[in-house]
């Protein structure tokens, strides 16, 4: 893959994913908040982690399939960190200061899930598909 395509293809994929994921995330959050659970914080965190893990695994796998090199994991990490950072900056938490430490870990851990999921997805794809072989010219 040429140098310019190695930069443009991942950027385009990451931006497209952002355009798709942000509205889906808003709809998903509205769905979760409209439901009542026996343990609301545990269920809502679990569902949020699941959503972020699912889309980030797919993004990482697509990056791995496109790039087929270790750079896919770097792109995946950058995309996951960017998503987690923007999500953290835009999210307002309204919860008690008397919560247990594991609840805080769950709340703030959700920002790391997208990075971890994307890296795992990229690793799985590059491992399964193998490295890109240089073209013979």
Task: Give me a quick take on this structure.
With 137 residues, this protein is mainly alpha-helical.
Lay out the secondary structure:
Blueprint: H1 3-33, H2 40-67, H3 71-90, H4 101-129
Helix pairs in contact: 1-2, 2-3, 2-4, 3-4
Could you describe the 3D structure shown?
It is a single chain. The chain is mostly helical and 137 residues long. Helices cover 79% and strands 0% of the residues. The protein is built from 4 helices and no strands. It has helices spanning 3-33, 40-67, 71-90, 101-129.
Structural class: mainly alpha
Instruction: Report how far the terminal alpha carbons are from each other.
Output: 13 Å
| Number of beta-strand segments | 0
Uncertain residue segments: none
N-to-C order of helices and strands: HHHH
Mean pLDDT: 83
Largest sheet: none
Helix content: over 70%
- Supply the number of helical segments: 4
Please state roughly what percent of the residues sit in beta strands, choosing from under 5%, 5-15%, 15-25%, 25-35%, 35-45% or over 45%. Answer: under 5%
User: Oligomeric state of the chains?
Assistant: single chain
List the main descriptive attributes of the protein structure presented here.
single chain; 137 residues; mainly alpha; 4 helices; elongated
């Amino acid at each position: 893959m040429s140098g310019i395509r190695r930069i443009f293809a991942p950027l385009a994929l990451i931006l497209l994913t952002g355009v798709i994921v942000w509205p889906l995330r808003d709809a998903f959050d509205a769905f979760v908040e409209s439901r009542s659970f026996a343990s609301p914080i545990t269920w809502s965190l679990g569902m949020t982690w699941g959503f972020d893990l699912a889309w980030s695994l797919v993004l990482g796998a697509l990056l791995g399939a496109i790039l087929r090199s270790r750079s896919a994991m770097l792109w995946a990490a950058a995309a996951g960190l960017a998503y987690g950072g923007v999500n953290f900056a835009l999210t307002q938490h309204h919860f008690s200061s008397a919560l247990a430490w594991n609840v805080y870990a769950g709340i703030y851990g959700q920002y790391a899930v997208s990075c971890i999921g994307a890296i795992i997805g990229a690793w799985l794809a590059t491992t399964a598909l193998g490295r890109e072989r240089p073209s013979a010219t």
